[in-house]
Write a structure and sequence with these properties.
This protein is mostly beta strands. Helix content is about 10%, strand content about 45%.
Length: about 110
């Protein structure tokens, strides 16, 4: 089946990300204390990752652990633990974007 130009551009705009874990329980026991995001193909530009609460407020920006990996430990910009709840993660690289959801349980 042949894709239309719109379908081709939409497919090209998707970023392949594998997420290890969807529930974050940052209590220091070493189990589910962070969520790891692995990019399928690292590129020359560093990915940009932002974490938002359900009200749309940006609570954190993730620094790449490597050119192909990002990690969130459930902390906000100030290093404080976020409250229990649902958080939206958006990772972008060039014009490609990936969106995901993380639940934080304390």
């Amino acid at each position: 089946m042949k894709m239309s130009p719109l379908q081709v551009s939409l497919a090209a705009a998707l970023l392949a990300v594998q997420m290890n874990g969807r529930v974050l329980t940052p209590n220091g026991d070493g189990v589910n204390d962070s969520v790891v995001f692995n990019l399928a193909e690292p590129s020359a530009s560093l990915p940009r990752a932002r974490v938002y609460d359900v009200r749309g407020r940006r609570v954190a920006e993730l620094a790449p652990a490597s050119p192909a990996q990002l990690r969130w430990d459930g902390r906000d910009f100030a290093g404080r633990a976020v409250e229990s709840g649902v958080y939206l993660v958006q990772i972008s690289e060039d014009s490609a974007v990936w969106n995901g959801v993380v639940a934080v349980a304390r």
